[in-house]
What we know:
Layout: H1 7-37, E1 51-55, H2 60-66, E2 72-73, H3 75-81, E3 93-97, H4 99-107, E4 115-116, E5 130-135, E6 141-143, E7 149-151, H5 153-163, H6 168-182
Parallel strand pairs: 2-7, 3-5
Antiparallel strand pairs: 1-4, 1-5, 2-3, 6-7
Amino acid sequence: MRGLEWPDERLRCARRDRAAYRRRSLARRVYPRFMRDLRIVPYLFLAPDALRAAALSCPAQSLLEALKGRAIWTLDTAVRLAGLRGFLVASDLTGYLDDGALDAVRSAGLIDEPAPASISVDPLLPRPPLLVARLGAEPPFVTLLHGQRIVTWERLIRDIMGTIGWRPDLLSRIEDAYRAATE
Length: 183
């Protein structure tokens, strides 16, 4: 009878059942995504050699408009531009820019002086929004109806995995809607 078991026996059974459920649940939810994601080569968007960061001197929307057609947005910015809810705490604008575009927004007074940076895109403490620009690379992109350029789904996965690590929960949440927005 279940009610007459010793407490340590009941605890052992509960732990065994929880462990079995966790194994089955994890295998069912993660295994197919894990096997597919093993083939992805992460891209280190935040590599310090070509990364520049600058505080915004204007609203983020103004900077997005100023860089329309010149920047290729990635990470949280690309997800937001695709019409989804962002996944990072910081409201930074993250993208690929060339030196000319960065100089143009700096001379227009839209950002402060860009500086070499090795920062986290998910800070522990609140801070003002930054423009985080990777210089010198032009990844594959798609142009949205409103004219903004965002990285392809395949490149977004590489950027996410190289920046914040393997996040199957995040990738599963945004995959269908991001692909639909970029087709």
